[in-house]
Amino acid sequence: MHSEYANFGAPSRRRCNFATVSIAVNVALLLVGAAVYMNSGSAELAMPAVRTRGASTRVYAQNPMKNIAAGLAAAGVGTMSFLGASNALTYDEFQGLSYNDVKGSGMANTCPVLATGTSDVKGALKPGTYKFDKFCIEPTSFQVKEDVGKGVKEFIDTKLMTRLTYTLDAMSGTLKVGSGGAIEFKEEDGIDYAPTTVQLPGGARVPFLFTVKELDAKGDISSFGGEFAVPSYRGSTFLDPKGRGAATGYDTAVAIPAGGAGDEDALTKENMKSIKPLTGKAQLSIAKYDSVTGEVAGVFQSVQPSDTDLGAKVPKDIKIQGLWYAQLQQ
């Protein structure tokens, strides 16, 4: 039978043979390319990152975690509870990093550590008035005061819910050192607040504005502390779900009677929004000082109130511990 379908199988086999050859050639080229890439990649991975700054060349470790032990020792911290400073780098090492080095690494949320200097701060720090510059505070633990039973309240551990944006940095102030080692410090400017949220073991979340704003501390080199202002977690123009605010919005909740059923106090707190600053206390100590560079580092502890929902809730006490770093200029 002569039909256009009689020789259907022959050309199909020719097409299959051509496709097989083409695939084999592509696979061979792919293997050659992979071999070349692996050879070049292994050479690059074997080389450390080298940065040239002026006339000197510095070699940086690819993994900044190697500096964590030295960083903790430099700040005078001997316990493993302060491992929050995961990427501990000195100030000079920070200056040698590019934007791409810091981006996504978490290092922007850390303070520099002091790898040089002496722990005999009282003997090395001369009396006088210093500019307290590049002041940085890095928390390593957050605790909330809660009722643990039978009316006993204790600070309990929490889970941090905020991303790596809670470190205070670029702050400045004035430090006065007396002849007998007395210290007076006042914080004046900088990024001195950071909205932060922690979660209690039961699942409740506690927001607060971590800050040392206008810290006025007095004492000596071993320990100096004082009070600071805690601004409202929310601003005056913030509106709650019922449209009420401190400087704008409704005066009372619409379509809800203003009291009369024994809930006048509760409604007053919800209606009368308050952004009045509260007060916290902080204690700092100097662990190390470098008289050549003017760098100083130590540890801190502060207790401050949490968010009050614009005056509607009773604040909780938040205990914060961590590291700090600064540079002194006379």
Structure notes:
With 330 residues, the protein is an alpha+beta fold. It has helices at 9-45, 68-74, 91-95, 99-102, 121-124, 264-271, and strands at residues 49-53, 56-60, 128-149, 152-157, 159-160, 168-177, 182-191, 193-199, 205-211, 213-220, 224-230, 278-289, 295-305, 317-329. An 8-stranded antiparallel beta barrel has the order 3-6-7-10-11-12-13-14. Strand 3 and strand 4 form a beta hairpin. It is flat. Mean pLDDT is 78; it is low at 1-15 and 41-86.
Mean pLDDT comes to: 78
- Structural class by helix and strand composition: alpha+beta
Give the DSSP E fraction (strand runs of 2 or more residues).
35-45%
* Beta strand count: 14
Low-confidence parts, pLDDT < 50 over ≥5 residues?
A: 1-15, 41-86
How far apart, in Å, are the first and last alpha carbons?
Answer: 108 Å
Q: Please state the overall shape, judged from the principal axes of the Cα atoms.
A: flat
Report the C-alpha radius of gyration, rounded: 31 Å
Biggest beta-sheet profile: 8 strands, antiparallel, barrel
Order of helices and strands: HEEHHHHEEEEEEEEEHEEE
Number of discrete helical segments:
6
Core attributes:
alpha+beta, 8-stranded antiparallel beta barrel, 3-stranded antiparallel beta sheet, 14 strands, 20% helix, disordered N terminus
Compose a concise summary of this entry:
The protein is of the alpha+beta class and 330 residues long.
What's the topology here?
Blueprint: H1 9-45, E1 49-53, E2 56-60, H2 68-74, H3 91-95, H4 99-102, H5 121-124, E3 128-149, E4 152-157, E5 159-160, E6 168-177, E7 182-191, E8 193-199, E9 205-211, E10 213-220, E11 224-230, H6 264-271, E12 278-289, E13 295-305, E14 317-329
Antiparallel strand pairs: 1-2, 3-4, 3-6, 3-14, 5-8, 6-7, 7-10, 8-9, 10-11, 11-12, 12-13, 13-14
